[in-house]
Amino acid sequence: MTNPTVPQRGHTRMIDLPVVSDPRGDLTFVEGGNHVPFDIRRVYYLYNVPVDSERGGHAHRELEQVVFALSGSFRIKIDDGFSKSEFVLRNPKRGLYINRLIWREMDNFSQGAVCMVLASHRYDEADYYRDYDEFLAASRA
């Protein structure tokens, strides 16, 4: 995959990462600006999430992300202010790109699920929309 174009606001898409396989197992790697459409400024992961828990429940003003299920599975619900969709992530070489101004909610975590997120910016609380109505107003402006 070579330098993908950055999608416009409101877009999500699946991203497939390269896999190197041999008898010892599989190796997957990711390069910012090459396999994902931004330079990676932060990496974080969720684990030990109770199976009945929900995560997310917010959108970002500027931040872009790619979300992966490194182990197990979970559902991610996406809302761009106009339409909604759902994805089940379970393959560690496939991630969901989420552009700015996209509301996301995650649930249905399997036992032992590990979610890794690659982010375009460092943590900044001011970048979050945590109120759904405020997000809707911004996404429709």
UniProtKB/TrEMBL annotation:
Q: Where is the Sugar 3,4-ketoisomerase QdtA cupin domain?
A: 12-138
InterPro entries xref list? QdtA_cupin_dom, RmlC-like_jellyroll, RmlC_Cupin_sf
As given in the record, the signal peptide range reads none
Q: Which domain of life, per UniProt? A: Bacteria
Stored SUPFAM superfamilies:
RmlC-like cupins
Q: Where are the transmembrane segments?
A: none
Q: Which CDD domains match?
A: cupin_QdtA-like
Which Gene3D superfamilies did the record assign?
Answer: Jelly Rolls
Name of the protein in question = WxcM-like protein
Question: Native species of this protein?
Answer: Sulfitobacter guttiformis
